[in-house]
Amino acid sequence: MKVVVFDLDDTLYDELTFVRSGFRAVAAFLRNIINISEEELFEWMWTRLQTNGRGAIFDDLLHHFGAYSKTMVRKCISVYRMHKPDIVLPETTITCLEQLKDRPLYIVTDGNKIVQHNKLEALHLYKKMKHCYVTHRYGIHNAKPSPYCFMHIVKREKVSPHDVVYIGDNPKKDFVGIKPLGFRTIRVMTGQYRSIEMPKEYEADIRIESLTQLKDVLNG
């Protein structure tokens, strides 16, 4: 396999670190508006996340502290999305990318264009990759499981899908659209989807526990 393509969230880094950073930014924004300490606001959101999942956390937060309005919810969402995240690549990812630096490396990631761009910048991934494809830049209909961005890579590298491997964490969408075309697929068992089992057509060809195993798998 000549070309290596990575997912971003929960594949190259722990997405919860971005969520934590975003909650910190929202807490800093709200502290003077509703006269509650930044730490108390952050802890409320973080606890709510553990118990209820993401859901409508900002709505619930503002209701809880008596400051709810649709405008304030929109402002919180904007702060969360626009903030410069305090996130870093784990050492395992840094080592993995260093080991593979002689191959063409790409990212294909879904999500809000600004949010994903800010993550890629904060993690210094633009300079480590040949190109980073944020699928929503090409229209939401071209997000995974669409093979649209993957076919861009095939054309750019002048290879066949069989020469391209995708490493992702989400079996609900990462592999089902590209496997029938011949792309190779590897699922890293990290993040919120690590315990999910899916029908065979949704699963990757290979599973690994962490990126520390990737070099040996690709060379095997």
Give an overview in words.
With 220 residues, this protein is of the alpha/beta class. The chain has 2 domains: 3-14 and 86-219, 3-Layer(aba) Sandwich (Rossmann fold), CATH 3.40.50.1000; 16-82. Helix content is 41%, strand content 12%. It is built from 8 helices and 6 strands; from the N terminus they run βαααααβαβαβββα. The protein has helices at 15-34, 38-52, 57-64, 70-82, 91-99, 113-122, 148-157, 214-219, and strands at 3-6, 105-109, 131-134, 164-168, 184-188, 206-208. The chain has a 6-stranded parallel sheet with strand order 3-2-1-4-5-6, with helices on both faces. α1 (15-34) crosses α2 (38-52) and α1 crosses α4. It is elongated, with a radius of gyration of 19 Å. The relative contact order is 0.16.
